[in-house]
Amino acid sequence: MDTHINDGAAPAAPTAQDYKSAVKPIWCPGCGDYSVLAAVTRAFAAMGLERHNTAVVSGIGCSSRIPAYTSVYGFHGVHGRALAAASGLKLARPDLTVVVFGGDGDGFSIGGNHFLHACRRNIDMTYVVMDNQVYGMTKGQASPTTESDWCESKLTPTGPGVSPIQPVQLAIACGANFVARGFSGDPNGVARLITEAINHPGFSVVQVLSPCVTFRPEQREWKSTVRPYGREPAADPALAMRNALEDDGFGLGIFLAGQRRPYRPERADTVSIAAIEEEFAV
After folding, report:
1. What's the whole-number mean pLDDT along residues 10-38?
2. Stated pTM of the model
3. Tally of domains in the chain
């Protein structure tokens, strides 16, 4: 009997390339989202996720194009509604790994209400927010995370004049179970944060500082501004909040790794169509 050296060999480990689609990204040159895409696919490969059991969901904006650039299942939703769609998907299919992608405008402005309640509900999914502190797709308006004195937009020539949202503090206050911050200039670091976020039970939020060099070229300096957060992840939200309040928004690492039990309503494993029709019969 002939023998073959590959008989019984384990399948090759997946690579980041396995999780990329054939669609070429069309972000502006220098956009930090390229690195975030690299980080996401590296994280999926490191975890060995099955593509048919993984889903990415997004809303509208530059960052929300990511589902088209991956080879897992994807859903490109409407503006601000990514978390609502992802919540329904995860509750209907708890066996899936669900990762949501968005930006600071999509997540904290029109989608702000959904963000608050996603944190509160604590469904077991991960939200990666690419924060560039500007509306890049619609040509440079101030976003919810823009500094109050940023004067480069023609719509706010004297600055927005209001305090910016602090995503890490907001996520902790509203009940997220895992909260971290990364920087797109360190894709390996972001990949590690995404991996830990997916593995941590409950609703996980990863804010990624992702420069928009087209409308905010000064953000190139972020590479010399960011630094390690320097503290161990807190299990207590009160301690995590105190630490976050002392941070200036450029500390990188895990702020909270909480212990809340994820929300998972009781549901029958199988429900017939006839039973559903009978329940809604008039």
Report:
1. 93
2. 0.90
3. 1
